[in-house]
Amino acid sequence: MTRTHAVPEVTDADFAEEVLAAEGPVLVKFTADWCAPCRQLAPVLSEIAAEESGRLKVVQVNVDSSPGTPAAYGVLATPTLMVFRAGEPVRQLVGARAKRRLLAEIADVLPARP
Fold first, then answer.
1. Range of the domain at 60
2. Which residue range or ranges hold the Thioredoxin domain (predicted)?
3. What pLDDT does 3 receive?
4. Which residues carry out catalysis?
5. Within a domain: 109
6. What sign does the dihedral 91-102-30-25 (CA atoms) show?
7. 36: left (phi > 0), else alpha (psi -120 to 50), else beta?
């Protein structure tokens, strides 16, 4: 059985604290309730959040209820995935993708396994 993990929502108000000030890398999903590919991606990110906890923090930002953060980072489409490290975006991916492909695309920005 695959472990899943609820992906917490971050808002404009707490983005700096939850993402920019985080110790390790943070994968941010910019999403919207009306976005079908975003819904397809949700279980993939839940699995990654569970399997990579300790190496990668996974959060989501709703572009409709928190429009300031997506605007600040030039997010024009949903879903957009960004990996932040030390307060800076280091990877950006647009569109839904399979778990294996997503993990391959962000592998080089994750810390080594202990």
1. 14-93
2. 1-111
3. 58
4. 35, 38
5. no
6. negative
7. alpha
Maximum C-alpha span of the chain: 39
Token pair for 34: 């009306």
* CATH code of the domain in which 75 resides: 3.40.30.10
Cα angle 73-110-22, degrees, rounded to a multiple of 5 = 55
Asked if 85 contacts 25 with a C-beta cutoff of 8 angstroms, the reply is yes
Query: Which among 26, 73, 76, 75 has a CA at the least distance from the CA of 53?
Result: 26
Amino acid at the residue 86: A
Q: Give the pLDDT score at 4.
A: 61
For residue 47, how far is the Cα from the chain centroid? 12
Q: How many domains does the chain have?
A: 1
Q: Which residue has tokens 């572009």?
A: 63
pLDDT, tens only, 42-63: 999 999 999 998 899 999 999 9
